[in-house]
Amino acid sequence: MKNVIRWPGLILFFVVVIGLAVLIRVFAGPLLKGGLEYGLTRANGAEVNIARAQVHWNPFGIELSEIQVTDPDQPELNRFQASRAQAQIRFWDAVIGRIHITELNVRDVAMGVERARPGRVRADYQSEREPMDWRQMLADLEIDIPSVDQVLARSDIRTPALVERIEADFTAQRTQVEQAREQLPPRERIEAYRTRMQEITEARPRTPQELLELRQRLEALKTDVRADRELVRQFVDVSEEAVRVLRTDLEALREAPAQDLARIRQLLSFDQESISELSGILFGPRVEQWSRYAFMAFDVIGPMLARAEEQETRPSRWVGRFIDFDREQRPTFLIEQAGISIHFLDTTVTSDWQNITWQHDRIGGNPTTFILNSTASDWWSELYFDGEFRLSELRGFSGRQDWRVRGVNLPEQGLLDQQGVSARLLSAAMNSEGRVGIQEGRIDGRGLIRMSEVDMRLDGEARWAQILSDVISQVNAFDMNVSLDGPFSQPGIRLRSDLDNQLQQLLTTALRQEADTHLASIRSDLDARVQSITSTWEPRLQQFTGLRDQARDQNALLADLLSIEADDLSLGEQLEDRLRDSLRRRIGG
Amino acid sequence: MLTMLARLLKALNAETSPWAIAWAFVLGMFMGLTPLWSLHNLFILFFALAFRINFSAFLLAFVFFSGLAYLLDPIFDYLGESLLTTGALEGLWVALYENPLARLFQYNHTITLGSFVFCVLFAPIWLFASHRLIVLYRHRVMARFNQLKIVQIVKSTKFFSTYQRISGLRGS
């Protein structure tokens, strides 16, 4: 035996093994810290820091302090941070590489918090989304509010041109009327025609010779009347045209100043297109930050679980793989119960989670569920979030989330500070509700954010900022429709808000108020021009109308005279009877 | 490394038991061919330290087989996967899966199981082959070997002086 055993070697072995065990026991915390930081950094894609890690041996558990998870897309921010995380873990499961946490408590979770220094991003990290740069869009908008002078310079005031055209029209019409009037037969001649016709029609011829003579007089009279009637009719046509033109033009002239002012006002309306994205610029980053809280499950835990799953199944001939013989289908990672307290608006709310894993098929298809239900506090009257998600080999990542938020008192916060323009939300009350669903890894949903009792302030050097500053303080309520679409880990957020419409209307009103003095002066000038021409031509129109009416009367009279035919003239009745008897005797009747 | 090689030559040329060297080669093969950070290698190390086998031979075999393992890993992976997916053995694997100790030995890892089974099967052959080669070396090769010009050149090198220094220290 003495020859077989090498005692120094045996002693050295035990010294080394026991020494290692003691070292592991003593330095379990730092070792765990290093291991977790390395593993979580790989899963997250950017630096993960843990200030301190402790291992509790009986009952077995770990405790982590000051956890900071860098946002790989914005390394200066933590996508997630917590002051303390405490987990009760099944020891023998952990020994064989199966993480089964019976209870997890995470305190003071916060998201989007600025880091002391930017975190390192792994070289192999690939963002799944182009970050939406809300602030860049401010420059893209090229907001330009024109001055009143600019508007007047490009406004098309038509009244003066109309005055000139109408004056020329009037002069031409007057010339034509006067020329036609000079051709009119004198009134006395018309009266003479009537007298002559009266004599002819009242005459009682006693013989056919007298009747014949009378008819010849009638034809001579009608020939005279026809010549004059043509002149009268020409005057009627000319005067009717003149009255029509004058009447139409005067009517157009009276309306011209109002139409010009309406056109100027139209130009003073603010271009809605250029302001349609302003609400997104003002509230986009804030809504994005709120959504980080609202979609914490999908934004933080979901991607990490999915990434962990991807890393788990990567077979290689050179490194081998572990084959699973778990016929009980137990998950390799499971947190049965978790309480996560979230630090939000200087208050802490706790969310309850169940079945956090990426192997939902192994827990009977039960989803990971989470619920946050907070009753009234100083900051809100109701806060309710609930949802579930599951990772399935068949259906991929799927889930849903509903939320309902009532009476949230938003504290003062910055909205925008860019390009010499700063905007702050001084106070507001917020209600919101909505639902998002996830199918095959894609998120799709929408929600409504109702802001009331809004007090906003905007400062800036630009002229548009100064005008906007005045009008934005008049907005006290608006709605924002939020829609989400895209990969669940990096959903794109779109905002549509009636704030844009309100601002557009208020800006237009402000512009018009600014322009009112100028517009009154323009109106007065245009009215004076119109008044000048109408005062001249209104009596002319009356005159033309009178002349037209007289000519119409004369024309009617002459038409009556011409309507009398030669057949209308006849012998007297006694003569007719005598002629009839004589004719009867001659023919023997 | 030179020291270690010198010690091996010393062991081969000295009266160290051929079995002690052969067992060292076997244990070195186990540690070299199987993944280093496996629990069974703790036992291999225990045997190598606690029993009177030639530790230099063990370390050199470990280094040699570690290099060879990089080439053989795909074969071990194939062998391990074949064993682990054999229907007849499924009951055994399933039973072992519930045993934490078996899981610590990483029996369900394809390369670990494949390389370990290969070592177990190859160990007797390698043990006796090593023993036979050492004996042959001592009886037939060593005398002729010493007469070779190349050996004489080697004897004039720093390596040989190291070898002699170690021999002198040991007083043999």
Automatic annotation (TrEMBL), chain A:
<dbReference type="InterPro" id="IPR019934">
    <property type="entry name" value="CHP03545"/>
</dbReference>
<feature type="coiled-coil region">
    <location>
        <begin position="211"/>
        <end position="256"/>
    </location>
</feature>
<keyword id="KW-0175">Coiled coil</keyword>
<protein>
    <recommendedName>
        <fullName>TIGR03545 family protein</fullName>
    </recommendedName>
</protein>
UniProtKB/TrEMBL annotation, chain B:
<dbReference type="InterPro" id="IPR018639">
    <property type="entry name" value="DUF2062"/>
</dbReference>
<protein>
    <submittedName>
        <fullName>DUF2062 domain-containing protein</fullName>
    </submittedName>
</protein>
<keyword id="KW-0472">Membrane</keyword>
<feature type="transmembrane region" description="Helical">
    <location>
        <begin position="20"/>
        <end position="37"/>
    </location>
</feature>
<dbReference type="Pfam" id="PF09835">
    <property type="entry name" value="DUF2062"/>
</dbReference>
<feature type="transmembrane region" description="Helical">
    <location>
        <begin position="109"/>
        <end position="129"/>
    </location>
</feature>
<feature type="domain" description="DUF2062">
    <location>
        <begin position="7"/>
        <end position="140"/>
    </location>
</feature>
<keyword id="KW-0812">Transmembrane</keyword>
<keyword id="KW-1133">Transmembrane helix</keyword>
<dbReference type="InterPro" id="IPR019935">
    <property type="entry name" value="CHP03546"/>
</dbReference>
<feature type="transmembrane region" description="Helical">
    <location>
        <begin position="43"/>
        <end position="71"/>
    </location>
</feature>
